[in-house]
Amino acid sequence: MPLLLVMSIPSLASALSIGVTSVATNVGDSGFQDATFSDFESDSSTSVEDAGGTIADAIGNNVSAGTRYAQYAWADNGFGSTTHSPTSDYRVVMDIVADAGTTYDLQIDTTRLGALTLFEDCCFSSTVFSSAGIGEVAANVGGVVEAALSMSALSINNSPLNQEINQASSVTLSGLSGDFQLVLDFVWTAEVFSNNDEGAVRLGLASSTTASAGVNADDYPGLDGRTLTNDGHFVDVTAEITSVAPIPEPSTALLLGTGLCLLGLRKRA
Fold this sequence. Notes:
By secondary structure, the protein is mainly beta. 7% of the residues lie in helices and 53% in strands.
């Protein structure tokens, strides 16, 4: 009696992954700037906070990746007035790799955390003559304006001495499938003004000019005791699986294997 072989077909492991491909300033970013007579200074930087990872294909599983843009700007003119307006302009690129038949959502969350700070350091008056502001965030997703990720402008003029920047925005891209490259662009302009006194924007980057050099408004922890690493413009993206391709039932695989074996035996007979 011929031996009947029963074949089983193992299911292949499936997964979804997200990773930061790049986070960098664009040509419009002001980068480091300082005045000839050191009456203003600004700088910016980017970093990867969470490089991402991989998850198994299962509905509800999620994985995240995140980046950070940091900035500072200050103005302090002891013999007149100075206005400085640096531009923030940077791009985040993330790659999502998914198996065929896997559908997922991308939740994009952004926060802008920091402070606008003034400091009186002129001997002529106890009144503060300075201002600081941070402009509205303009955001693009894949080259298309995304209003849901915008943030409003904030400013202070002469008083109060400190205003917290604590803003958040989010949007969800639903029903994505297959491999996807997420490209995010963010732009805004800060402004600091000094008429003998100091004005600063603190957004998570330490200034190269310390209090010992005569500039105080830009310091960390500074007024309201801020933490340097907690401030900045943060982008966090979470990929969550919403559906997966059906896996063949074991009985289906067994019948398929049995049929193939029987077909082979018939040809040999």
